[in-house]
Amino acid sequence: MNVYAPVLHWQSWAVLGRHVRVHLRKWHTALLPPVFDPLVMLAAFGLGLGRQIGGVAWEGRTLDYLSYLAPGILAYTAFMTAFFQSLFTAYIRMHFQKSWEGQLTTQIRLEHVVWGEVLWAATLSTAYSVMVCVVLAGFGAAGWLDLHWAWLPCTLPLLFLSALGFACLGLLFTALLPSMDHMSLPFFLVILPIGFASNTYFPLPDVPGLRELSMANPLLQLCEGLRKLLLDGALSPSLAAAAGLSLLMMLVLLPLDFRRLRRRVFGDA
After folding, report:
1. Would the pTM count as exceeding 0.85?
2. N or C: which end of the chain has fewer CB within 10 A?
3. Domain limits at 190?
């Protein structure tokens, strides 16, 4: 069956709407992480550590560390939020809260549940990215950060698309992990390698083969594309690479997600 067409069905958007309504009931606590996490990271690393290490070499020039870090934090927020929501939170809804079971007793089918989870992870990820943009604007107003601010809203569609790809990756682990005791595995197998094999916090070292291998890292391409856009106000091939890798993840992982989740939910062979 076509696992991509249900994104256009009203049932998938109804699942998304349900997640939005539930989230808005706790908005006052849900607002804290997307605001304080980048605030602490930028203050502690960008201002604190940045003053200790001085400048960072990037594309043949030296940047202050806060300017280098800010686009990376924006990209990393999209990655972490989407992956966490489609893994940990989706697993809780599927296994403990039985939300999926309740939805499947209505006109909603499993493909709608899957798409609803993917859309919700990408939507929340983009909303958190907006909060990061607000924090960055605050640093700019304080005179600590200088970016091409007019390009900042233009990053959101790419962040949403990237989050869709990362959400499909998280859902694959939701389908595969046998219990909550195994939740640490994706962090060691996916989050740490993708996070540290990117240029989120520091440029990659000049190790033979590392840079070529890391070109397939969607987070690295996203960081580099956003950095070029926000620091130089210029488009770069990394933006197209980030979008292409995200679409590739969706095309490859969604059928696997659906097949594994159908086996897990219904016991189909």
Report:
1. yes
2. C
3. 5-266
